[in-house]
Design brief:
By secondary structure, the protein is α+β, with helices and mostly antiparallel strands. It contains 9 helices and 12 strands.
């Protein structure tokens, strides 16, 4: 969206009526908020994104579990959840289309969502938006440094994995990313966050960036993820692999989510 929209005027907008995705916002109101306006900024915090134009209101969205934003006609890596079904219907339109934005350069951005777990709404001010204020800093773009990073966790007794996935603390870390990060940081997922040392917080921060930057560089194509990642062992064939290298993988619930980790390595 940043590449295609920022600095350009929106020529047309198609909103496919959906009371779940758009709530009580009329399709016409969504379209009117964008059509004919110049895009000033596209922001993101975790799975939440927003488009600001030269006039209020702004558009705010959340990807949900399978929401997908892509430039039509451009190379793309499809989400694992999409399987191998065609991207477009027989008429050539994106399947499960919810929102289509066309710029003055005739470039198109489509938001699709097969499971309808995403959300799109209007807000008068991104800065003053209550829901956006509740989100923690983005784990890739806004990750705090040093003592500020440790302060997010070091007075909390909850398991470190649960806190990593708490979007009010940090935005953008989900289940497998939390497991991958803790595996590389050599920290047990069920450790109380307050028990981590300064050195462990430093390692944790480094590994958050390593995992996220590597995944983004790969375009979320898991075939390009390093072969030594837990990602390749946690799924597949029943519950997944029994070991990573020579070390046993344990699967248990931490923070309400199935967690894969290696006790011999993670302390």
């Amino acid at each position: 969206m940043r590449r295609v929209l920022v600095g350009h005027k929106i020529k047309s907008v198609e909103v496919v009526p959906d009371s779940i995705i758009f709530g009580d916002a009329p399709a016409g109101a969504i379209a009117s908020a964008l059509e004919g306006r110049k895009v000033r900024n596209v922001g993101r915090r975790g799975k939440t994104w927003w488009i600001e134009t030269d006039e209020a209101p702004a558009l705010v969205g959340h990807l949900g579990m399978s929401g997908w934003i892509r430039e039509l006609g451009a190379p793309t890596v499809r989400l694992k959840e999409h399987g191998n079904a065609p991207l477009d219907d027989p008429e050539g339109r994106p399947r499960f289309l919810k929102l289509l934005i066309v710029t003055d350069e005739d470039k198109s951005i489509a938001f699709t969502d097969a499971r309808r777990l995403g959300r799109v709404r209007l807000t008068e001010s991104v800065v003053g938006d209550k829901k956006l204020k509740e989100l923690g800093p983005d784990a890739l773009d806004e990750l705090p440094k040093g003592d500020k990073f440790a302060a997010l966790f070091n007075k909390r007794s909850a398991p470190i994995k649960a806190l990593l996935m708490d979007q009010k603390i940090l935005s953008g870390i989900g289940n497998w990313v939390a497991d991958e990060t803790l595996y590389h940081a050599r920290i047990a997922p069920n450790r109380a966050a307050s028990s981590l040392s300064s050195d462990e917080f430093s390692k944790l921060r480094k590994q958050i960036l390593y995992v996220l930057e590597t995944a983004v560089e790969a375009g979320a194509d898991d075939k390009k993820y390093p072969k030594d990642w837990m990602f390749h062992h946690r799924w597949g064939g029943g519950r997944g692999a029994l070991k990573i290298g020579k070390h046993e993988i344990v699967r248990e619930e931490v923070g309400g989510r199935t967690t894969a980790w290696a006790p011999a390595l993670q302390k």
